[in-house]
User: Fold Transcriptional regulator, AraC family from Clostridium saccharoperbutylacetonicum N1-4(HMT).
Amino acid sequence: MPQVDRHKNRNVYIEFIANEDFVNLPYKERLTITFITSGSMNLQLNDRSIKIAAPSILCLSTNDQIQVLEKCNVASQSFCFHPDFFNTAHFSESNDYLSTNLKIKRGLSLFKKDNINTGVYAAIEKVYPKLYEWFFIMGTEVYAQSDSLWVCRVKKYLIQIFGLLEELNHHSGKLPVNLALEYIHINYSDKITLEDLTRYVHLNRVSLNKMFQDSCGSTVMGYLLSYRLKVAESLLTHTDMSLNEIARATGFEYDTYFIKQFTAKIGMTPTKFRIASREFGNCH
Assistant:
């Protein structure tokens, strides 16, 4: 059943299941992200045998077929949503969803299954606290609906969760550059210094920047700024969060500094970008 937004006259086609029992998965007309926080299980997923050990994330599309063969002390929560919730910036007060050509690519690869990707992503020890925090707050927002912007905050956490999982899936390994990328993708919403990164990868700043320049085409702090702005672009396009909220969510201490950096790098102010992206349906 969709959520009835008590602040606005609309239905919001999302659900949060605090105790997932795997009986009804996948949910009809929904994409589902399930966070397994303890235990283990054996599944038959699309005729493929899969073993999942907590902590892990399971991403299911509407056409996936899943059968639980064995469960052992499993605790898990699910967030499921209509695809339009992720792809559409606005709601119509009378017709629920306002059709637009806005499409967000962030995170969609997580739901695609092939010979390599199973839709199961291990929540490594370093990333588990951040995923747990974001997932918990997202569920709380669904139940509490604390103010009129609760839907925007749910979208924010969903975008951040998907971005984190996608980046970690693309950049795995123990090379110093991959370790630095891992640290950035996990902690970009917090304050990060160059010293934090050099300590994390056990390199001096000159060596780290040289490796980063060769691999990513920028210094490590330049990449951090670009990644923060990349997340900010999605939040500007797909939520009505204030500039101050977006600045804080992406690791900028002050919205004035965020506006200055965004304008310098993107070529327009965040407000103008928000208007343009919604008008022309830019993808992020």
User: Anything to note?
Assistant: The longest helix spans residues 150-170. The first strand starts at residue 3 and ends at 5.
